[in-house]
Design a protein that fits this description.
The complex is a heterodimer of chains A (282) and B (179). Chain A has 282 residues and is mainly beta. Chain A has two helices and 28 strands. Chain A folds into two domains: 147 residues, no CATH class; 103 residues, no CATH class. Chain A is globular. With 179 residues, chain B is of the alpha/beta class. Chain B has a single domain, classed as Periplasmic binding protein-like II (D-Maltodextrin-Binding Protein, domain 2). The chains are: A mainly beta (282), B alpha/beta (179). At the A-B interface, helix 1, strand 10 and strand 13 of A face helix 1 and helix 2 of B.
């Protein structure tokens, strides 16, 4: 029976990793990254582990695709704690080892059932998902998500997301809200195919406010299985007239089976850097 | 001990769900090696990806039997056949009989035909397992009903030769307000 328990333990904790025979490095204690770090396969920060990343650190994900699904396999998987606090002058960079930095060159930073996650002044580029947060309290500030399939993605999370730039991703922010809560404010979500993609099971528990959501293919696109109307009040959509704003919001106005995205009141001018006031405490 | 096993099993299924959700489940669409069939598959692919966020990949086959075998064995989730192919495979011209045969013999389900005229039809066919994972898929695919007539697909193929499949498919779906 003990053997059976061990087998189950392995399955429960690493089923996502072992299926593909990827190299796996596990962190069980406190570890600090600085300089240049190469991730080949999976780095997993376990429950008792804590990863601190110093300003200016560059994390390169090796482009390998063992399962041939078109998505790079290298990833950082966090169940413990991650503190990635860069600075304006020395941001932390998560990127592909290859030069082209195309979306899906590496898989993601997955923060799942973790103790805590903090990201500030971080660049996420060339991933399937720059950052995914599930079942975790996470703070993401002053960071850039670019050239990913999904820039920032979350589900059932407690999040504070402030003053980030999501650009040139397929989806700037993609989420299944479920039991999430939190605030997403003062972000610049521009030049993505879709700015914000509420896929399904979204309500208004996460407050999107004071964001500049403009110049995207669609600024907001509601997923086919989303049922409830959604509220995106007090954001700036790049235009003054509602009729123009509506052209970039894919909701009931395009497909009668979809819910409505409420946008009023909306800002008629963009939020400026001087307007940004991220919460100190969350 | 039983409780520990139960907890482990629950955790397994919990994490299993997440691991699938990490990069999304992938739907495989099979098609024969013709430009027209590839175009229809690309339209389906784009519609599904754009509306649900699900990853879709296309698989090309040289003949009907190979495609059917792949669908039956789970390598392909979805494909589109016209009545000529179905009649040949099921040895009947009766739609309901063919539908029943595909269901019982291959675990494949006929969705609502995309096109119908007299005894001719074009129908999306999906694996039962896939349908369980994506129960809302038929409703989405139905949005293409009546839109993929041979003449339309032929024009789209010509257009794609000039400016690429991606732009052609996107503009077609956008013109119908489907994405």
């Amino acid at each position: 029976m003990k053997v059976l328990n061990i087998i189950f333990f392995i399955i429960t904790t690493v089923n996502c990793l072992y299926a593909k025979n990827l190299p796996v490095k596990e962190i069980f204690t406190e570890e600090v990254w600085r300089g240049e770090i190469l991730v080949e396969g999976v780095v997993a920060v376990r429950k008792e582990g804590k990863l601190t990343i110093e300003p200016g650190t560059v994390i390169l994900f090796k482009s390998i695709d063992i399962d041939d699904d078109g998505i790079g396999d290298s990833e950082l998987y966090v169940e413990g704690t991650i503190i990635a606090k860069g600075s304006k002058d020395a941001p932390i960079v998560f990127t592909s080892e290859s030069n082209d930095k195309i979306p899906s060159s590496w898989k993601y930073i997955m923060v799942n059932h973790a103790k805590y996650a903090y990201f500030e002044h971080v660049l996420f580029e060339g991933a399937f998902s720059g950052l995914q947060v599930h079942f975790t309290k996470a703070i993401v500030k002053n960071s850039i998500f670019r050239n990913n399939v999904d820039g920032f993605r979350f589900s059932t999370a407690n999040i504070y997301v402030c003053n980030n730039k999501m650009t040139k991703n397929r989806h700037g922010i993609r989420y299944e809200e479920r039991d999430s809560k939190g605030i997403i404010e003062f972000n610049s979500i521009q030049e993505n195919e879709i700015g914000i993609f509420p896929v399904t099971k979204c309500g208004d528990k996460v407050n999107f406010r004071y964001n500049n959501i403009e110049k995207n293919g669609y600024n907001i696109k509601v997923g086919d299985e989303q049922k409830e109307n959604l509220s995106f009040k007090n954001n700036y959509f790049g235009m003054i007239f509602e009729s123009e704003i509506r052209k970039k919001i894919y909701d009931k106005h395009f497909d009668k089976n979809l819910p409505i995205v409420n946008i009023k009141p909306y800002s008629k001018k963009p939020f400026l850097e001087s307007d940004v006031k991220c919460l100190e405490e969350f | 001990m039983f409780r520990r096993i139960l907890v482990s099993l629950l955790l397994f299924f919990c994490f299993y769900g997440i691991s699938n959700a990490c990069v999304g489940k992938t739907i495989y669409i099979g098609h024969l090696d013709t430009k027209e069939e590839e175009m229809v598959s690309n339209i389906l692919s784009r519609l599904i990806t754009e509306r649900t966020g699900t990853s879709v990949k296309l698989k090309k086959y040289s003949n009907v039997s190979a495609l059917l075998n792949s669908a039956s064995s789970g390598e392909v989730d979805l494909f589109v056949f016209d009545s000529n192919k179905i009649n040949e495979l099921s040895k009947t011209t009766d739609f309901e009989k063919a539908k029943s045969d595909f269901n019982t013999k291959f675990n494949l389900v006929f969705l609502k035909p995309l096109l119908e005229s007299k005894s001719d039809y074009t129908v999306p066919i999906i694996r039962k397992d896939t349908l369980k994972k994506f129960p809302a898929l038929p409703r989405l695919i139905e949005k293409l009903n009546g839109l993929v007539q041979p003449s339309v697909i032929s024009d789209l193929v010509k257009d794609s030769e000039k400016r690429g499949t991606k732009d052609t498919v996107r503009d077609f779906l956008k013109s119908k307000n489907l994405i």
